[in-house]
Amino acid sequence: MTHNWKFPPDYYQHSQEMLETALDVIPAYRSWRVFDPGKNYPLDARYQVMPALTKKDIRQFFPEGLLPPGKNIQNGLESGAISFVNTSGTTDDKVTNIWNQKWWDVSEKASWKLNAHAARLATGSHPEAILVNPLNVGIASDTVDLPLAERRLARFLYMSERTSYSTWTNQHMDRMIRELAIFQPVILEANPSLLAKLCRYIDESKQKVFQPGLIVLTYENPTNFHYRQIRRVFNCPTASSYGTTETGYVFMQCEDGKFHQNTEFCRVDFQPLKKEHGGPLLGRILVTPFHNEWYHLVRFDVGDLVRLDETDKCGCGRDIGMIVSATEGRFANVTLTCSGKLVSSRELDNNLSVLDGIDEYKLEQTKPDSYELHIASREQDKQKLGETAVAILKGLYGSAANITILHERIIAPEVSGKYRISKTLFPLKIEDYLEENPLNTQR
Ligand SMILES: [Zn+2]
């Protein structure tokens, strides 16, 4: 399948500089040199045969081995240009990164152009309320409630200091509603699972809530249930923003619902999955961020799957860069049917979305043919809900699937602070699912 993506004039120049500097002088990429067919080959082909940069590589080469030429870590830290940040999560996920706030801010600013509401409302000095897990960003305090003034930073208000929403009380959520009315944010940025929880409470307690100009969902893939719960309470537009600590802002959902690449700030390489697993439109992305003069990452494996838009067009009229019809969730969150076909968390979610009355859920595949669905619901008839869910899951995973339904009071987030809707309890390797690249068989 060929795509006719258009890129800004300097996109290939930045791509070339990033690759050649990496190969020429940056220690983390020394072992990549043998793969380079040479400067006479088209740049995309050169990129295509390169390995992916993993979190393991970052751990191995951090920080000097990933530093652009002419930079000195000590100087950067002392001048305040950079700091080190740790991402939370399991041992495999955990990594320390070089954080360059100035670059992050300009990367974010460029992403606003990709959504008409953000472009209109975001000035860079607009008040913004942030409802995210403080393990990801913000100020954590699980023992003492912090007053509003202590949760303010520049133009931001951090709405919760709690590291798990299982400890949110009604008073805690009443405080959020009250503070939204006082602070009047132009944009509300939120983890969808956290915002959905607040929305369930607002809906149930029949309260009125301040309406921001735009809700930006980030850090997690929103589920259909999250959207439903959020829309019951907020009537402003929502947009999902996709990026990572390592790569900055990569995709932004436009007002028409598709995702556009932040081409000014990153190159994205797409690797399709095998046809039997959802390819060639479903695949993983490797991101090469531009303009970060303190951190040289090339083909970083962000660990996520996306679905390319089949038409390469969008109703909004934007036609620069890759167009993605949906983010499909992390590879770490995929499950398999009984016959071994990959199911992305979005595919699972779309199947379950016909159910009524689910607040949250989590599906764990314990064995190749066994699945446990944890459901948090306020429905009275849990028996019927469970039976319907079993029928849906057998349709998706196969009639031989052993499905256990477990009703829970709440579904707790992972150690990373993020909510995860599905996973296998046995290891999977992405390489087994990627369409084989003939140029790569030499590796
Ligand atoms: Zn669009």
Structure description:
The protein has 443 residues and is of the alpha/beta class. It folds into two domains: 1-126 and 186-330, Rossmann fold; 335-427, 2-Layer Sandwich (GMP Synthetase, Chain A, domain 3). The protein is 25% helix and 24% strand. The chain contains eleven helices and 20 strands. The chain has helices spanning 11-25, 43-48, 55-61, 73-79, 101-112, 116-121, 170-183, 192-204, 224-231, 345-352, 382-397, and strands at 83-87, 95-99, 128-131, 152-153, 156-158, 187-190, 214-217, 238-244, 248-253, 259-261, 266-272, 282-289, 300-308, 323-330, 335-336, 342-343, 358-367, 370-377, 402-408, 422-424. A twelve-stranded mixed β-sheet has the order 4-5-3-6-7-8-9-10-14-13-12-11. Strands 19-18-17-20 form a four-stranded mixed β-sheet. 39% of the residues are buried. Mean pLDDT is 94; it is low at 438-443. Zinc ion binds at residues 254, 256, 258, 260, 314, 316, 318.
